[in-house]
Amino acid sequence: MSKEDSMKGTATSEKGESTKAYDDLRKWGFLKIKRTGYGEHVSIFPNMLKDVQALLNPNPQAVVKDRPPLEYSIDPEFDVNPFLTAYADKVINGKRGKYTYHKSLAGPERIKAYVSVEGEKIYIINLGSFYEKDSLLAKAVTRIDEKFGSRAFAKAEMYDLGRDIVGNKQPIKAILDVLVSYNYLIDLKEGYYKRTTKQLPKSGLEDFSSE
Question: Phi and psi (nearest 5°) for 110?
Answer without folding.
Answer: -110, 155
